[in-house]
């Protein structure tokens, strides 16, 4: 378990990380989400013991980082945003070199990590010849060579093409079955597709810390229901549904084959059973009735553009 308590870091007058605290449990895939410059990379560098915090503490399995830096580094595999690879080396030679630095002289471990990271077919290619996706996998193999308990990944899919992104996401999810994974990103879909939990950072402070599902429920906004029917016109439809409790607004969707409307309803209101009853009563044929859930993108925008009073703990 990783416990962060009151962590702060400044660069001159600029406070990159401002008194943040959180706990990461064993076996979690946790996403550190925030806009560029929010303090994500600085936080990861402190977690990996690369940077020393100005104040606060980091405890990993009851070991304080300030007193047990080397022990904690042995427990962590760290992949920075730009993987520190020697491009002129062959993949095998590079991993052999990294393994020897770690005191590992077992070719079996190199083969094992190559299989996990799916780079077996490029082991005898120069790193410079590889695609960005394969380079990321080699960097991940570097981070994993000593079989760490914790993986810290800074923007692991940055600059990858869509196919490479899916491959790296799947690999991270697979690794999360046996390791604690912490990754940073400013890409919302990355968190939704990969992480069990998200910590949103804005201007160096934590503004939310929960599962994506709970965060979507935490921001109490209105929700929309798309309602498409035949057998009536919009004026009649609007008049009928406006009388349902919880319906705040009814807007037409133009250019539709059916009579279509967007109903804005209160966050806790459930109007779909009443819509179905109205349709049956009026002999309308329902072609679609879909509730638009509050997306993580909307949650993110709400939490990173609002004031201090809007923080979710």
Task: Walk me through the structure.
- By secondary structure, the chain is of the alpha/beta class.
- The protein folds into two domains: 172 residues, 3-Layer(aba) Sandwich (Rossmann fold), CATH 3.40.50.300; 71 residues, MTH889-like domain (Alpha-Beta Plaits, 2-Layer Sandwich), CATH 3.30.70.1340.
- It has eleven helices and 14 strands.
- The strands form three sheets. The protein has a six-stranded mixed β-sheet with strand order 6-7-8-3-9-10, with helices on both faces.
- Helix 6 links the parallel strand 7 and strand 8.
- Helix 5 packs parallel to helix 6.
- The longest helix is centred in the middle third of the chain and has 14 residues.
Structural class: alpha/beta
Outline, from the CA principal axes?
Answer: elongated
Rg on CA atoms, Å: 25 Å
Widest sheet: strand ordering: 6-7-8-3-9-10
CATH topology of the largest domain: Rossmann fold
Reconstruct the topology from this structure.
Layout (H helix, E strand, L loop, with lengths): L1 E10 L2 E11 L4 E5 L6 H8 L7 E6 L2 E2 L4 H7 E4 L11 H11 L5 H10 L15 H13 L5 E5 L7 H14 L4 E6 L2 H7 L2 E6 L2 E6 L1 H7 L4 E8 L3 H8 L5 E6 L6 E7 L6 H10 L3 E8 L3 H10 L8
Parallel strand pairs: 3-8, 3-9, 6-7, 7-8
Antiparallel strand pairs: 1-2, 1-4, 4-5, 9-10, 11-13, 11-14, 12-13
Helix pairs in contact: 5-6
Properties at a glance:
313 residues; Rossmann fold; Alpha-Beta Plaits; six-stranded mixed β-sheet; four-stranded antiparallel β-sheet; 14 strands; 34% helix
Task: Summarize this structure briefly.
The chain has helices spanning 40-47, 69-75, 91-101, 107-116, 132-144, 162-175, 188-194, 212-218, 234-241, 272-281, 296-305, and strands at residues 2-11, 14-24, 29-33, 55-60, 63-64, 76-79, 150-154, 180-185, 197-202, 205-210, 223-230, 247-252, 259-265, 285-292.
């Amino acid at each position: 378990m990783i416990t962060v308590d009151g962590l702060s870091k400044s660069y001159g007058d600029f406070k990159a990380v401002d008194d943040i605290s959180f706990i990461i449990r064993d076996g979690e895939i946790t996403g550190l989400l925030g806009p560029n410059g929010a303090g994500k990379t600085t936080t990861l560098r402190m977690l990996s013991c690369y940077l020393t915090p100005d104040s606060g503490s980091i405890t990993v399995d009851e070991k304080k980082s300030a007193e047990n830096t080397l022990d904690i580094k042995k427990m962590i595999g760290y992949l920075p945003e730009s993987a520190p690879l020697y491009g002129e080396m062959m993949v095998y030679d590079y991993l052999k070199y990294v393994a020897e630095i770690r005191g590992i002289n077992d070719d079996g471990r190199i083969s094992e990590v190559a299989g996990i990271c799916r780079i077996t077919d490029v082991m005898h290619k120069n790193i410079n010849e590889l695609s960005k996706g394969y380079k990321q996998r080699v960097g991940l193999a570097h981070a994993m060579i000593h079989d760490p308990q914790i993986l810290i990944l800074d923007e692991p899919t940055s600059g990858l093409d869509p196919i490479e992104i899916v491959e790296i996401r799947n690999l991270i999810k697979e690794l999360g079955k046996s390791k604690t994974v912490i990754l940073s990103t400013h890409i919302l879909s990355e968190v939704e597709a990969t992480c069990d939990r998200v910590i949103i950072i804005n201007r160096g402070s934590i503004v939310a810390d929960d599962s994506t599902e709970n965060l979507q429920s935490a921001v109490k906004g209105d929700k929309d229901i798309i309602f498409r029917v035949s057998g009536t016109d919009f004026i009649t439809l609007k008049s009928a549904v406006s009388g349902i409790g919880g319906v705040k607004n009814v807007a037409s969707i133009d250019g539709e084959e059916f009579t279509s409307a967007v109903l804005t309803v209160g966050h806790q209101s459930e109007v779909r059973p009443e819509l179905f009853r109205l349709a049956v009563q009026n002999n309308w044929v329902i072609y679609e009735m879909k509730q638009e859930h509050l997306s993580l993108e909307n949650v993110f925008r709400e939490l990173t553009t609002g004031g201090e009073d809007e923080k979710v703990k």
